[in-house]
Design a protein that fits this description.
Helix content: 25-40%
Number of strands: 6
CATH architecture of the largest domain: Roll
CATH topology of the largest domain: Nuclear Transport Factor 2, Chain: A
Distance between the termini: 87 Å
Radius of gyration: 25 Å
Strand order of the largest sheet: 2-1-6-5-4-3
CATH class of the largest domain: Alpha Beta
Number of helices: 4
Largest sheet: 6 strands, mixed
Number of domains: 2
């Protein structure tokens, strides 16, 4: 093999390595458009509660709102979950199921810049080791932008059920707020 034959092979090898390095730099410096960042707050695994306890359910609800975490939120809801609220315009109670609630909550998470939920004391709690009814107050601050902040106070009446894996899940959420 003479020098004339080696030169094109060497150039081709150097060019291939250059293209591979350039491609690697571009690949690792891009943001994945299918996995956008949802929150600037660092996720602290200790913020999530043990859903085998009633208090863990409320802690996970609060944390899912803080981090706008639809996966953690979805784990709270039983497949037969029902959300009930008062439609004051029509003067009747209205409701929707788990799927609509997940869509509605995801819309709230996406539309807001920040959510802060504070659970107040439990007003009423009754039930046993497999089914509980709990009434409790809350304060919710929804920040859409710095000049559009909504502060809500309300009360909920939830029914939770322990499933076969000893995890408590919400089966009914009755919003007893007056807004």
């Amino acid at each position: 093999m003479n020098i004339k034959n080696i030169k094109p092979i060497l150039l081709h090898g150097i060019l291939s390595i250059f293209i591979l390095v350039l491609y690697s730099i571009l690949l690792y410096s891009c943001t994945n458009p299918f996995a956008p960042k949802l929150s600037d707050k660092p996720i602290n695994a200790g913020m999530y509660g043990d859903q085998r306890t009633v208090e863990g359910v409320f802690q996970n609800f609060k944390t899912s709102y803080l981090y706008k975490d639809t996966i953690a939120y979805g784990r709270l809801l039983s497949p037969d979950f029902v959300f009930i609220y008062r439609n004051y315009d029509k003067g009747v109670d209205a409701s929707w199921g788990r799927d609509q609630d997940m869509i509605s909550t995801a819309g709230l998470f996406n539309a807001s810049q920040a959510l802060e939920l504070v659970w107040n004391d439990i007003i009423v709690s009754s039930g046993d080791s497999s089914l509980m009814d709990i009434s409790r107050g809350f304060n919710l601050t929804i920040t859409f932008n710095p000049s559009d902040i909504i502060r809500l106070q309300g009360r909920v009446n939830v029914r939770i059920r322990r499933d076969s894996t000893d995890i408590w899940r919400i089966i009914r959420w009755r919003d007893e707020s007056n807004y």
